[in-house]
Design a protein that fits this description.
InterPro entries: CbiD, CbiD_sf, Precorrin-6x_reduct
EC number: 2.1.1.195
CATH class of the largest domain: Alpha Beta
Pathway: Cofactor biosynthesis; adenosylcobalamin biosynthesis; cob(II)yrinate a,c-diamide from sirohydrochlorin (anaerobic route): step 6/10
GO biological process, one term: anaerobic cobalamin biosynthetic process
CATH superfamily of the largest domain: CbiD-like
Radius of gyration: 28 Å
Keywords: Cobalamin biosynthesis, Methyltransferase, S-adenosyl-L-methionine, Transferase
Strand content: 15-25%
Shape: globular
Largest sheet: 6 strands, parallel
Oligomer: single chain
Length: about 625
């Protein structure tokens, strides 16, 4: 059993992540004001000290603690550290994502006492404190002194009562309203400075800083307190799930994996580290990689068996290079590349007389080129969004490789370099296994493609995933949403969430490729209203009757698509372009703008024809989503 200590945005994410397992767990908050939908989780309210938590863990057989509390909940962090030490229960600390500290524009304070000292030293006469109601008593020396302080607190009775108990004048209280522009209150009060906590991206830290800077208001920020080195740290949903899978292997029926792009990024970072490890430090067994969603996960890297070597190029440059390897772990997804080596070779030319380039912004400090090597396919046909002749490495994994290498170069203090860093990604054996995929039909020749978008492989192709869809749908039903929205994944969900901004997060469910199974589940659960979101690639398959749209099961039928285009009034030129296209998403450029509406409506009608019988007692709405997020209904 797992116990989450929450009450924050991270607590909500932890609940959502654990709900995917379909197994019971406990979610504890200090008060009862946070609204969290629990289907398998069990809600607990009230403060628990060390002994109470220890007793609870024994009584309920708790094997794992998840600390998803606020970064400044110091007492709780210390309590969990003590519980972990005395009860031998591991703790996962679900930390927030924190932006890099801006030492130039922000006055950083070690704690509240230091903040008081700095604010007094700087003779701040009017202060807006965005540090919450709990901080009123900690800043008493300010607001009872010569500094007029305004506090913004949550608009709820418990916050007002606590402010009153601390003796704070009500006329200087202001209330937080969700979604309100941070500049509004600052423009109303005109403070000389604001005081904020290092509360991370999810705590609105960046928005507060930006608003103050735009208005010319000084910024004082209290550094987040340090937590235990014995905790296992994660800062996102993927890292949390993987850490739970590692700590309690049986909690999730299926385990997640890493995309080839994530493996390539880790290998590239490791090789870069090897080149610049002039101090000959011991090489880490794993390297942290930032995923496209901003969270960081550790990736194991194979021990270094290569040595740094150099060559002399034709122009006299010395080229230093080394390779590093990651073994692909796809989790429980039947990925054809699972267990294969993903190798990154990093080569850096040095010329002793080369002038340094002009100083560049930090994000442009390094010139990095990502190439494809052995086992990486080459693009030979249009439609994949990559240049002909280019390696089959999509924009997202390419950027992930570049950004992570830049991050490590910066961390290691490596200055900007006049020559490009060349990273060559290889997958030995990739050419042979690619023959068992659809890559040759898509014009990807000579190897596999690296196309991931999230950095994480979720196990789609199994009965267990269908079971997880069922559990997610049950949670969605319990949310009492007006209707439930199903989509294939993160990209389409992002656009649909913007289309339905008022629906709760639980109302959105991923079907992966299992459209038919998901509709059957919706019918079983007697859902009155369901929205199905489709990108064009799945839509053209579903329109022909394929209720499982996985590329391993079915490919698009160009003859069928031509028939629909013909019915929509498209001419022979358009039909010829359809015959020549490589990917379904090319249709958005091929179909003339004046025919798009008719074509989309016909496609949706065909999809409705195959889906409606599976939901006979419910209302089904189908949305066709373009690559840019435009929606046809």
């Amino acid at each position: 059993m797992i116990l989450i200590l929450g009450g924050t945005t991270e607590g909500r994410i932890a609940v959502k992540t654990l709900e995917e397992a379909g197994k019971p767990f406990y979610y504890s908050t200090k008060g009862d004001e946070q609204e969290v939908l629990l289907h398998n989780g069990i809600r607990l309210n009230g403060t628990m000290g060390t002994e109470k938590i220890k007793e609870f863990c024994v009584r309920h057989n708790i094997k794992l603690l998840i600390d998803a509390a606020h970064p400044f909940a110091e007492q709780l962090h210390k309590t969990l550290e003590q519980v972990s030490r005395e009860s031998d229960i591991p703790v996962i600390r679900f930390e927030r994502i924190f932006p890099e500290r801006d030492e130039k524009h922000i006055n950083w304070c070690k704690d509240y006492d230091d903040a008081i000292s700095q604010i007094k030293t700087n003779r701040i006469s009017t202060l807006l404190a965005l540090t919450g109601v709990q901080s009123i008593s900690k800043l008493t020396l300010l607001w009872k002194g010569n500094t007029r302080c305004y506090f913004r607190i949550l608009d709820r009775d418990s916050s007002r009562e606590l402010a009153n108990k601390q003796g704070y004048p009500e006329e200087y209280l202001h209330y937080y309203h969700y979604g309100e522009d941070e500049r509004k209150l600052m423009q109303q009060i005109h403070p000389e400075a604001i005081l904020i906590k290092e509360s991370g991206i999810s705590g609105g830290f960046c928005e507060k800083v930006k608003a103050a800077q735009e208005l010319g208001i000084r910024i004082f920020a209290i550094c987040r307190p340090k937590t235990s080195d014995n905790f296992h740290y994660v800062n996102g949903e993927h890292g949390l799930r993987r850490m739970v899978e590692k700590s309690l292997p049986d909690f999730f029926t299926l385990h997640s994996g890493l995309t080839t792009g994530t493996c390539a990024a880790a290998a590239a970072v490791a090789a870069t580290w090897d080149i610049f490890n002039t101090a000959l430090k011991k090489r880490p067994s794993e390297f942290s990689i930032v995923l496209p969603n901003g969270e960081t996960i550790p990736v194991p890297v194979e021990p270094q068996r290569n040595t740094l070597h150099s060559n002399i190029s034709k122009n006299g440059d010395s080229i230093f290079e080394i390779s590093a390897t990651v073994i692909k772990d796809a989790g429980d997804d039947p990925d054809i590349t699972n267990g294969m080596k993903v190798v990154a070779n990093v080569a850096i030319p040095f010329h002793p007389n080369a002038p340094l380039p002009p100083k560049l912004p930090s994000q442009q400090r390094y010139d990095i080129t990502v190439c494809g090597g052995e086992g990486i396919g080459i693009i030979t046909m249009p439609g994949l969004g990559l240049d002909l002749g280019a390696p089959a490495i999509n924009a997202t994994p390419r950027k992930m490789i570049e950004d992570n290498v830049k991050r490590y170069l910066k961390q290691m203090g490596i200055p900007q370099h006049p020559n490009p860093i060349v990273i060559t990604i290889s997958v030995p054996g990739g050419e042979e296994i690619a023959k068992r995929t659809f890559n040759p039909r898509l014009g990807i020749i000579g190897g596999i493609s690296i196309i991931g978008t999230s950095g994480i492989v979720k196990p789609f192709s199994s009965e267990a995933f269908v079971s997880s869809i069922h559990k997610s749908m049950e949670v969605a039903c319990a949310a009492n949403s007006p209707h439930i929205v199903i989509s294939s994944g993160a990209k389409s969900e992002k656009y649909i969430k913007a289309y339905y901004p008022d629906l709760p997060a639980q109302a959105f469910v991923h079907y992966g490729n299992f459209i038919g199974e998901t509709l059957n589940i919706a019918n079983e659960l007697k859902l009155p209203q369901l929205t199905l979101g489709l990108m064009i690639g799945k839509a053209v398959k579903l329109a022909e009757g394929s209720l499982d749209t996985h590329s391993k099961k079915v490919v698009m039928n160009k003859d069928f698509i031509q028939d629909i285009a013909r019915q929509a009034g498209c001419n022979e030129i358009t039909l010829t372009l359809i015959r020549q296209m490589n990917m379904a998403r090319e249709l958005w450029d091929i179909i003339p703008p004046d025919k798009l509406s008719a074509f989309s409506n016909l496609l949706i009608e065909h999809c409705q024809r195959h889906c409606t019988p599976l939901l006979p007692k419910g209302k089904l709405t189908i949305l066709l989503i373009t690559e840019n997020g435009n929606i046809y209904t």
